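Let us work through a complete example step by step.
Step 1: write down the sequence.
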Amino acid sequence: MEYKYDFTETTLVTKEPIESEEFPSDLFKVAADMSDDGMTITLDGVALLANEQLLNTFQKTREQIIGQNLLQHIYPDDLPKAKEESQKNRKIVYEIRIVRGDGTPVHAEIRAHPIIYKGQKCRLIIVRDITRRKLSENRFKNYHNMMNAFPEAVFIHDGNGRILLSNEEANKLLDVKAGESLAGTNVMKYILPEYHDSIKEDKEKIDRLGNVTGRFIKIKGDHQTKAKSIEVSVVNVEWENGPAIMAICHDTSLEEQIEKSEMAKHVMESINEHLQWEINEHKQLQVKLQKMVEEKEWLLKEVNHRVKNNLQIITSILNLQIDQIKDKKVIPVMREFQNRFYALSSIYSSLYHTDNSNEEIDLSRYLKDLTHNLFVSYSDPDKKIKMECRTDGILMEYDQAIACGMIVNELVSNSIKYAFPGKRKGKIDVSLVRAGKKVKLEVSDNGVGIKAREKNKDYLSLGLQLVDSLATQLNKSTLKKESGEKGTKFTIAFTYDKITKR
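Step 2: predict the structure and record it as tokens.
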């Protein structure tokens, strides 16, 4: 969606001029246009500029924001904090609640930066709606409280046995002292050695069936002198960082003492009914945990989206700077930096739009977009250069994809700039093919060759040093250079075990 902004400004109060570099209003427009956060520039707390996202966050009209003191939109309980933070003339980050146009409070993260705008000391303020994050935090607190409300001891541990969470009953079962925690310790530490083999068998059943019930074992805490008999039921659950195991433990020490009595049968029936109830409850918790995992995946995509936006903002700022540079010798250097930022931002753009849970990049599409951008960036009507990119449809993890993309960026840009001096015609080819686990990346041109290029002092640049460095980051890679009167070819061969062909 493309937003149109009305950058209506209030008149600045005339004060003593300040000799300092000013924050340009057109830079605010570019940043605001590309940001998903609310942005404003204030003088003594009064809003001078505001983007559409800020108005959407506050759910108020431009007239209710521009020319008004932003403190009037702060939730009353947070007003003292907001006033205190507004007095600090430095970069700050804090959280407060704001009151929307309909009267509802919304959690927001505030980032304030001191700037000089039209000769006055102002502040650039970025407002981010963090209501969703606050809801997730509260949901996790409620889940933890729910675990503590269970009448039985509950442990959650990963596949290696490392305890991730234990409720209050579990801490009582092992006599954990105040200030101590079971988190990070291995659950096998507390199980007597003679039960280790049966626990390993249970793990295989859990992998096949998803749960195991009615296993009797003995455990002993660090501060206990006598082992306790427990009945444990385990079930697979989804946790923050992947699959985990939930163990519900019932202390059967008392049952051992009365198992010969007539009450034993009734006690066991009651325990079984209770365990069945707990299993049903845990199934509901598993659904909630699944939702938490889905939210985490959404947040990860959002992070990639933010990084992509930040890199694109840098690219746009560089573009604005290039347009203002009068020294033509500096422009190619700035253009190289801009293309390197584009190569990185394209990766994060692919990560944001991919549906692949392993965060793999469609390398074919990425390289074609990258070479097209380079061709447009260095386009010169006097040079009739053709560009061709042929690649197999390969999915590759983003760290290796970045290395390939940066290598292509440097080699193609070098060919465009140096391989075809004057008005010489030519062609640049980029090829990426795979055979089994072997991948071969070739960048070639039919230009003047390396020896002729080296006459140009600018040719021995950072770009070729980057190519050598980046090639070493690829697994079991080799770099081969061939050059002559018919052109130059760079061949990088490497091994990649996780390749998926589309």
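Step 3: interpret the result. The longest strand covers residues 105-117.
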